[in-house]
Amino acid sequence: MKEIEELLRQKMGLHAPTIGLSSVQRAIRARMDGLGLANPQDYLQLLRGLPEEWGELVESVVVTETWFFRDRECFRTLARLAKNEWLPANPAGKMRLLSLPCSTGEEPYSMAMALLEAGVADARFDIDAIDINAGAIASAERAEYGKNSFRGKDLDFRARYFQPKEKNWTLDERVRNRVRFQTGNMLDRECPVPGGAYDFIFCRNLLIYFDRPAQERVMRKLHDLLTAHGILFVGSAEAPIAARNGFVSAGLPLSFACRKAPAEKKSRLAAQPATGPVKESAATPTPTGRLPGAVSSADLARARRLADEGRLEETRRICETYLQAGGVSAEAYYLLGLVNDAAGAETLASEFYRKALYLEPNHYETLLQWASLSEKTGDGAHARILTKRAERIKCADLESC
């Protein structure tokens, strides 16, 4: 079993503790049982000789739910930037977009629909989509989806872009033709990424599964693949990883969008140390041994901006000082949860998210982030409960229920 875990680390940079060793081993055992194999060595040989099975194992280990327009603000931001910035600056030519990992296609197809809804002509953009799993790619190319791919109550797009087929829905050719799928592993030097730079890249909830060397390799490749003024969308817990690797926050709320850092900032960002787990303790003393002065809600807003920039140690200190001084804030607990989440301290992160929701049960970002963490740690039922709560809140805010 250890050799298979090491193969996962070597080939895909998997940092098993982020998922849980027991979860990884369960996934391996499930694949072995399905193939009628009892000896891990036999399965190891199969993995080394059968690329298709390697893809199946990776898909089993990195269990990522996907659905159309997951985290809608990312797609709203994409549409807004494409229409208001990219098109005016590029009166001719095609916008290039990349989705990886694309799984079964919901994300890249959502990108295409968001652009079409914004009035971007289909002749003005192309989307490349890459995933390590050949089975997922085949499913994406079929473009037939069941009810699990459609969540929330804002489903007007389904009537515009899908045709019912028995119990499923088939995506229209107009959208399908805008996306080109291929199998590939971003950690492979020969990953078949098409030539040319991209204006927008979606790489969400992938980096959190990697060890730090693998994160850095992928981030270098993403940096090279992005145009000078392009936008990279990452997962909410991955902003600190981007910040350590040549990117800065684009300052677009709830979209977790990044731009390439100016050259003079890159060395400073790269030099920032990794932040370890943050325990709930007294605020950090000043050099004189006294506690810092109490912070205000304005400082918490600053802590939020620092978190977006990946400056997690500063975020931690502000939030701890606020709470130590007697402040009561769901935002402070949420940010401390985010800091621990990014550091891989899952239990502490969950506790901070729990405290945030105790104070503010409708804290939308906490619900989403805790759902993502629960999904990553294998608690799918809890993730679904939190996601449904978040969807109800968002729906109520938009008055679309």
SSE blueprint:
Blueprint: H1 2-12, H2 21-35, H3 40-49, H4 51-61, H5 72-89, E1 95-99, H6 106-117, E2 125-131, H7 134-142, E3 144-145, H8 156-161, E4 162-165, E5 168-171, H9 173-176, E6 179-183, E7 198-202, H10 212-225, E8 226-233, H11 239-243, E9 247-249, E10 257-260, H12 263-270, H13 297-308, H14 312-324, H15 330-342, H16 346-359, H17 364-376, H18 380-398
Parallel strand pairs: 1-2, 1-7, 2-6, 7-8
Antiparallel strand pairs: 3-5, 4-5, 8-10, 9-10
Helix pairs in contact: 2-4, 3-4, 5-6, 13-14, 13-15, 14-15, 15-16, 15-17, 16-17, 17-18
Question: Are there runs of 5+ residues with pLDDT below 50, and where?
Answer: 278-293
Q: How would you name the CATH homologous superfamily of the largest domain?
A: Vaccinia Virus protein VP39
Can you name the CATH architecture of the largest domain?
A: 3-Layer(aba) Sandwich
**Which band does the percent of strand residues land in?**
5-15%
CATH class of the largest domain, please? Answer: Alpha Beta
Largest sheet: 7 strands, mixed
The gross shape turns out to be: globular
Give the count of structural domains: 3
The total count of helices amounts to 18
Mean pLDDT: 82
Helical percentage: 40-55%
Ends apart, CA distance between termini: 49 Å
- Structural classification: alpha/beta
User: Can you write the helix and strand succession as a string?
Assistant: HHHHHEHEHEHEEHEEHEHEEHHHHHHH
As an assembly, this protein is single chain
The strand count comes to 10
Strand order of the largest sheet: 6-2-1-7-8-10-9
CATH topology of the largest domain, which one? Rossmann fold
Radius of gyration: 22 Å
